Amino acid sequence: MTRLDMINQCFCGESCEEILFSLEHLATQVQEKWVIDAITSMKSANPLGLKIFLRTIREGRSKNIEQCLETEYIAISNLIAGKISHNYYEGARAMLIDKDKKPQWVPSKLEDVTEEMVAKCFSRSFTEDDDWLPLQLPTKTSGTHVGASKL
User: Fold this and answer.
1) Cα angle at 41 between 40 and 44, to 5 degrees?
2) Matching Pfam families, A to Z (predicted)?
3) Cβ(94)–Cβ(100) under 8 Å?
4) Domain count, the chain
5) For each of the chain's 151 residues, which pLDDT tens digit applies?
């Protein structure tokens, strides 16, 4: 089996849990450093972030670049605003401020991240008192940047 075959086999899972399970199963069959590195990386990463990333990648396959940028902007705006969790700041604390490299993710396990939590990250509902405004990309015809404006 080639490396590409192994990657395709493991990452075709519908969920992060399935992908991790496939990687762990593969690790019992082959001695490949990248497999162990992938498992270690997934287990130490922000569980909510992993699920957001997987959804973004999967949905992005059928979107154009403008739609992808808008989706990512909405997700990161919700994450930075702390609407779902404070993991964005926890990661910065653990890696950049305290440098203990021991983030305390909430939730701490993939199985505790609900689909509702992930869906909230992609919610377009910006409240009146939010400083976050929808992304406005420059138009192709004008060549000038268009400022953000409320929906």
Assistant:
1) 85
2) ECH_2
3) yes
4) 2
5) 899 999 999 999 999 999 999 999 999 999 999 999 999 999 999 999 999 999 999 999 999 999 999 999 999 988 888 888 999 999 999 999 999 999 999 999 999 999 999 999 998 875 445 667 778 888 777 555 545 544 4
Q: Which two tokens stand for residue 62?
A: 């059928």
Query: Does residue 145 sit within a domain?
Result: no
> For residues 111-125, b (16+ Cβ closer than 10 Å) or e, as one string?
eebeeebbeebeeee
List the domain range (segments joined by +) for residue 21: 1-44
142 contact partners, CB below 8 Å, separation of at least 6: none
Q: Considering the entire predicted model, what is its pTM? A: 0.83
Does residue 117 contact residue 104 with C-beta atoms inside 8 Å? no
